[in-house]
Amino acid sequence: MVETVRELPVIDDVALGAMFDDPYPTYARLRREAPVAWLKPANIALITTFDDIIAIEKDDTTFPANDPRSLMFRSMGHTLMRRDGEDHMTERRALVKTFSPPMIKSHWAPKFEDFVEEQIAHLRTKGGGDLFAEYCAPIASRALAEVIGIPEVSWQDMLWWSQALIDATGNYADLPEPWARCAQANEGIDAAIDHHAEYWRRAPNPSALSAMLQAGFPMEKIRANIKVAIGGGMNEPRDAIATMIVALLENPDQCAAWRADPGLRRKAFEEAVRWVAPIGLYPRKVARDTVLSDTLLPAGTAIGLVAGSACRDERKFGPDAGRYDLHRPQAPHLAFGSGPHFCLGAWMARMLVGDMAVPALFENLPDLRLDPDHPPRWGGWVFRGPLSVPALWGI
Ligand code: HEM
């Protein structure tokens, strides 16, 4: 039988604003009708099925991460996330110890505990508020500042920088304002790196900045990798904390099971990031003409691996993949990517979010519930999560 190969279908009837509000109906349609398709308003080909993304991640010669057109080059410089082969592994190896489970447990977890306790003490002074702004963001920012080695930076600055980097990296519409904010963030981050580098040169510690200085990396590489950690290590845990809180509060039966059985903690976390993947899309390039899902991808095509869609692929997770279900049979998801670029901060996120921040919140705030008058707001498709989590609790 001769298989037919089709030209790359062009999707021009989807507005990016609608994708920001809710990309899932579009993803479902693409998985069904055009799993490899050119999204014209964003100038990128979307890969939306689980199996296609896994196949791509196994072949970094055909699908390299290093694409000089990637918006990340302009927003952060040449980070390890956009390197391939030995070039990538050399940088990654220098950072592995900082993010390893033993280092997280022994060195970073006690600091994370302090941040969680301090934010809970703050919440205890009031009976309600936006958990996204008052709990998720400060904890994620403070934890990240410690681990990457710029602990004197305020969590508000971390938050602002991270958002500026992310908005520029996802600025497929090429608006001028995100680029201006990004330039300002770059200035602030470079100053913080220079300031803290002085400490770690004198007295090294396990942070990412210190590890890269110890490894003798040039400052240009160090700056780029600290920026990718700020852009990719702050919003994601913040959004994962918020997503998991909403998921549990909206599903009281599952919440009761999770509270009764600490053995469900890891599953509840993994299901939260599968349900709403904080990094909705990450880019690759096509190095040579290739066929995927019977569709021709010409050499040079910029592609986006849509983790947000793959994590809801009904062929992998069943017809109710759009539902949060911590009792779902466990299956690997793609929220942390896969292959050589698998998220370096995955263990940090698992511990900070799933083992500490979310359980401590439910243990310490009696009668925690969503504010019935102000439902959580959601947004994003390149990066996605709650924008606010208004809640009430007893004091
Ligand atoms: C729930 C939280 C998180 C999610 C969902 C997440 C997701 C991801 C994804 C999808 C990738 C792959 C990107 C690609 O292949 O292009 C990635 C890579 C990466 N992540 Fe995370 N991340 C999270 C937390 C963190 C944290 C806390 C850090 C800490 C700094 C971090 C640092 C990194 C780094 C450095 C890479 C690049 C690894 C490489 O290229 O070898 N992430 N992450």
Automatic annotation (TrEMBL):
Pfam family, one: p450
UniProt entry keywords in alphabetical sequence: Heme, Iron, Metal-binding, Monooxygenase, Oxidoreductase
One annotated GO molecular function: oxidoreductase activity, acting on paired donors, with incorporation or reduction of molecular oxygen
Keyword check for 4Fe-4S: no
PROSITE patterns, sorted: CYTOCHROME_P450
SUPFAM superfamilies (alphabetical): Cytochrome P450 (SSF48264)
Stored InterPro entries: Cyt_P450 (IPR001128), Cyt_P450_B (IPR002397), Cyt_P450_CS (IPR017972), Cyt_P450_sf (IPR036396)
Similarity remark: Belongs to the cytochrome P450 family.
Protein name, entry field: Cytochrome P450
